[in-house]
Design goal:
The complex is a heterodimer. Chain A is an alpha+beta fold. In chain A, 37% of the residues lie in helices and 24% in strands. Chain A is globular and about 95 Å long. By secondary structure, chain B is an all-alpha fold. Chain B folds into 2 domains: 92 residues, Orthogonal Bundle (Helix Hairpins), CATH 1.10.287.110; 107 residues, no CATH class. Chain B has 8 helices and no strands. The chains are: A alpha+beta, B mainly alpha.
Chain lengths: 646, 230
Amino acid sequence: MAEGRVVGIDLGTTNSLVAYMQGEAPVVIPGVDGSNLVPSVVALDPMPAGGGRPTVTVGNSARKSLIETPERVIYSVKRLMGRGLEEVQSELKLFPFHLANDVEAGEVPRIQLGELRFTPSEISAYILRQLKRNAERFFGEPVTQAVITVPAYFNDAQRQATKDAGRMAGLDVLRLVNEPTAAALAYGLDRAKVGTIAVYDLGGGTFDISILKLRDGIFEVQSTNGDTHLGGDDIDNLLLAIALDEIHAEHGIDLRKHPSAVQGLRKDAIDAKIRLSTEAVARFDIELPNGDRYQREIPREVFEQLIEPVLERTAGPCKQALADAGLTPEQIDEVVLVGGSTRIPAVRKLVDDLFHLAARGKKPHIELNPDEVVALGAAVQADILAGSSKSTEEMLLLDVTPLSLGIEALGGTVARIIQRNSTIPASATEHFTTGVDGQTNVAIHVVQGERELAADCRSLARFDLKGIPPMSAGLPRIEVRFLIDADGILKVSAREQRSGQAARIEVKPTYGLTDEQVESMILDSFDHAEEDFAKRLLIEARNEAETILTAVERAPQSPAWQQLRGEEQAAITAARDRLAQIKQGEDAAAIRDATLALDQATRRFAELMMEAAVTTAIRGKTMEDAGEELGDAVTAPHPMAQAEFK
Amino acid sequence: MLKVIDSAVPVACWSCAVAHNDATLFCPHCSKIQPPPGGDYFSVFGLVPHLDLDLSELEHEFHRLSRKLHPDRFARAAENEKQWSLADTALLNDAYRTLKEPIHRTEYLLKLHGAAISEEHSGKDRKDPSRVPADLLEEVFELNMQLEEMRTARKMGETDAELQASLEQAKRKFDGLMDEVDHDLRVQWKKWDEGDAGARAAAQKALVALLNRRRYLNNLVRDVTETLGA
């Protein structure tokens, strides 16, 4: 393909994924560790001894640092995207990160990570760059164009911050797609359907509901609603708070003062939450710093009572979306569940109640993995934009703006100029004039939201119409055009009609980075140069080869090795020697082929090791002891895959 | 972040240079996308201004044009075509949003013909007796008293079943009156669409009055619904 590929990216609160269209079906591109999900965690490695900039790691390897060096790790950064200082401050009460202490009001807040400070967009850029690299490694060629998903209820500033992150990561962001709409695309691909569907998307940190009408390949969003502050994180925090409070009360230890202990406990809370989706009870059993144990049972009923207020907050947006679409629950033909939090049985019950599903003999759609469906849909949209494939040429997505756009009128009220749920691109033209003779400036304040007073809405931008020819008050007629583009981002233009002059506009976004700032934050990546790209592929290929060679080196010490037949052992040894030799060369593709060959040759051996590990555990040894005997093999399904952080 | 866009309108096709009138989205000669055309919302759909629209036909045309104009179809096009696709699609969406909704469509067409349509009233205007349709004066007065009573009761945490029933009855009545207005609007649409200049002028006058009455009723029903649902 001359123009290169377009990949679809789900930049999630908890996990991020990259996917592409493989023929007629979207597939997720795995990372080096074989995992489809890249945890949205960014860690700063220790400062190099000789000075300079510490390297940044992303994903599973960064998660390891959560407990070791919590002050150098950040997660759930999506909750901070496009937010102002005050919002970030209130958000940070729930998280162990800190604002840089020199942040001023009106600036984009920066997070202190070790010695360095980063804007939320920069942190997201590191995640995006990792996904970009995963895709490049997979294709063996550079990837520069992407579709990135955002919560449908993201406002202008949050969208712009996401787009900025893409640019910093060296990606040309062809489109921002709303997550629930992307999910609908993924589901709608294999069945040319006519009907009305609702997508209920409860992720790690955001909630969206979208109602769409499907017809002849056109996906027309009727209405959308949501809460960009609601998700699995909130549920984790509830469980975490219980444990912290009880530990404090019963054992007199305030763990809140120990970030790494809180991180450990958070992980236990998440594990308990996940277990409660399939089991009737989960347990906390935690060793405290003073040697005491905190033990606690959480029955599912208790958990469901605890999270009811969180789940109930999704009901209002659903009802509003139905009302805005002019539909009753009975008129919804299908409901699609998206986001990891929809695995919780209480969530499914709530959705069932909201849309009267069981009563109508219907079930929500959960066929596609709720963690992957958004990325798959992003890949479909990427394919639509690339315009190069038969399977998507009849498809078109018509999305809406989630929030009304208004301008501040006299007395601080809002004059709405584009209503929420208008199909985008959408525009509105307003006329302004002067109030004083000879006035050459008019100030305009643009806001987003549904409240009556501008102060209660989200301030988007203030701008001055300048250079108005001096005339009597009320005589100039300045036409200002507001346009929300297909990404849901506002653009403004203006002209003075009597003089025909295009009025100069100086737009000062209330939140956000200037073009120059974004430019200066572009990750000093060497992604662009072909030569460097080849160099990087070679380094990565060698690293992968090194990983598997190390694992195979230890193989003969394992009891499983003796269970292999002679020719199997010989095949492994031959593949190992071949890889060791080719690794010295410069051909990245050859190294990867040889790595793959060794991987294939050791597949049965890996299975035997797993079996051995399980048997050892049954004999009374703990998994941990077994792990020491067997190296990384216990936690990793295969030597190729790096150990998952436990 | 905000960006300034430009929307200059050439008359000759930018691509093949063949001149065409500026009310077309695509060049009739080379089929390339054109900058946003002049003309009204009806002309976007190739329609003459009229009120009794076939909505399923309108939707069909909206989808057909969306497939050709949408920015998704121009993701890798040249910058000028991208900009026009964006502007044209915004125009198409604005036009569809206005025309598919009967009241917006009627207001839009009347404004095109120079009628003065009053803007949305604030809550205060509603209580202004001069704005109340004469035949409803007494009932509206009564209703406003009841709404006030209901809100006070709610604030005190009391429930008044009798008042509730009475408000529900009033809501049904006003809903019924709205249906009547909608029916009358349809009758006047036909008169406007099919009549000569004189009939049109008469229909236009009737439509303006009906729209004002409808807006008034709509606000009333919304008030009652909000108070009942609070």
